[in-house]
Design goal:
two-stranded antiparallel ribbon; PvuII Endonuclease, Chain A; 32% helix
Length: 180
Amino acid sequence: MFDPPPPIRQLTPTGDADHILRLGRELQELATRHGVHNVMTDNGYQELVVLTLFGLTKLRREGNDARDATGHQYELKTVGRISSDGVRKASLSVTTEHTLTLANIERYRRVWLWVVAVFDRTLPEVIYEIAPAALEPYFAAWERHLRDNDPSGTDPLNHINNPKIPLKFVADHGVRIWPP
């Protein structure tokens, strides 16, 4: 059996990241108070901005995303205007679930509103609210597709991989709530 040589240190810290780390700690402390437990992943920063702007409370990881003071629940979606390559995207879509099932569709139908926020890097560019009833053409099409693939509705692996809703549809059928 071959024993690899011991690892040799290749990099030595030469920069001062204290300022960045302080900002990150402060942002995470604020996020934790809003129920966002890792502001640096999974759209945590964008969710924190939306929760704060509209006085919403973050819900658990599974299920609906947020609720207001009256108990209405919301589905929060964030969309990035700038690609990971730094290119401004010409057209945008709202992503849904990596494994969209009939149960997800039913949950989507029951929320009070969807909130769709488009971010240009760290800044909200535009935020819409849209009622689930307005999204019904998508829900119905996805439901038909799932039922066509599993008429009995018993296959736990039956899902659609991340179907999208064009942002133009949200803009045309929703209400712009940001900027005010």
